[in-house]
């Protein structure tokens, strides 16, 4: 029997109408749960990890399985700053988005209260486009139906966008995590806006956003030279600063969008600070 909250490892397999994980000793996992077809598009017959999510599939009312690549975890403390390319369906995504990973905990800040959170890497990148995570069948975007059924269009970010990554080792990750946890506490203790309780009332594109909160946290632990108001500008400026800071190990790479029918291709946003254009030319992405 497949247990909830437990992570299983195996080969993502498909036989007839059944999709499941095949364990190394022939065990079969998740044959009675909902496994999204998007996983098969990219990882069929490959080693993966999986566990059951609390949410259920709308069509068959089955428990939903989240699947992600079986990649060995590192014990070295690290930080990863993400620039997520623009979602073409949403005006609020016109400038892209930043998030930051501190030792496996991804801190996400947003104008929506429920998206100000700490989220695991597998859920941030690889949630399935099933149930409440899926786009609405009516408009292929966010929608809450009259009967209360929600389609948040909030599945794995790597299926929705290409993500640019700068990975750094050598920072004070304990202190940085404390700073970002404090900021989440501040956000969730803020009195809600009575006109729209789902929005964070103190969100401000120029002073209190996904980019500026992350920037201010990096400044607070001593990286005073990092500047930027908008997502791509912050990413370029921070990556350049990491590379120039003695004692840090830095690499820059992309997580290309994993194409699925539920998401159109993401789009790069422009740099808005011309000073960052030269810095961008000095960044070298790994293949």
Quick gist of this model?
This protein is α+β, with helices and mostly antiparallel strands. The protein has helices at 37-43, 121-126, 157-160, 173-189, 210-220, 231-244, 275-281; strands at residues 8-15, 18-22, 28-29, 47-56, 63-69, 79-84, 97-102, 105-108, 117-120, 143-144, 150-151, 163-169, 249-255.
Descriptive notes:
The chain is of the alpha+beta class and 287 residues long. It contains seven helices and 13 strands. It has helices at residues 37-43, 121-126, 157-160, 173-189, 210-220, 231-244, 275-281; strands at residues 8-15, 18-22, 28-29, 47-56, 63-69, 79-84, 97-102, 105-108, 117-120, 143-144, 150-151, 163-169, 249-255. Strand 2 (18-22) and strand 3 (28-29) form a beta hairpin. Helix 4 crosses helix 5 (210-220) and helix 6 (231-244) packs across helix 7. It is globular, with a radius of gyration of 20 Å. The protein starts with 7 loop residues before the first strand and ends in a 6-residue tail after the last helix. The mean pLDDT is 96.
